[in-house]
Amino acid sequence: MHGLDWAAIGLSWAAIHQLGHRRRSGFAFFILANLCWIVFGITAGSPALLVGNTGFLVNNVAGYLRWAPVKSET
């Protein structure tokens, strides 16, 4: 699985950027990154990556579903 870890890192950076600009798509990027880390954790035999990113995945799905757009200050 060469490159899957780098894909996960890139997706995580994109997620941080998007959420920093108050965009819901940040959660979608984090969800994809979590899935990459889960697959990487399985192939690398790392229970910590699997368990940790499963928890992060649940949090990111909840954040995506609960997203409310920021109201304009007018």
How many domains, as an integer? 1
Radius of gyration: 14 Å
Alpha-beta classification = mainly alpha
Strand-and-helix sequence, N→C?
HHH
Would you give an account of this structure?
The chain has 74 residues and is mostly helical. The chain has helices spanning 4-20, 25-44, 47-66. The chain has one domain. It has 3 helices and no strands. The longest helix is centred in the middle third of the chain and has 20 residues, at 25-44. The termini are far apart.
Short description:
The chain is mainly alpha-helical. It is 77% helix and 0% strand.
From the structure above, extract its key features:
elongated, single chain, 74 residues, mainly alpha, 3 helices
Describe how the helices and strands are arranged.
Elements: H1 4-20, H2 25-44, H3 47-66
Helix pairs in contact: 1-2, 2-3
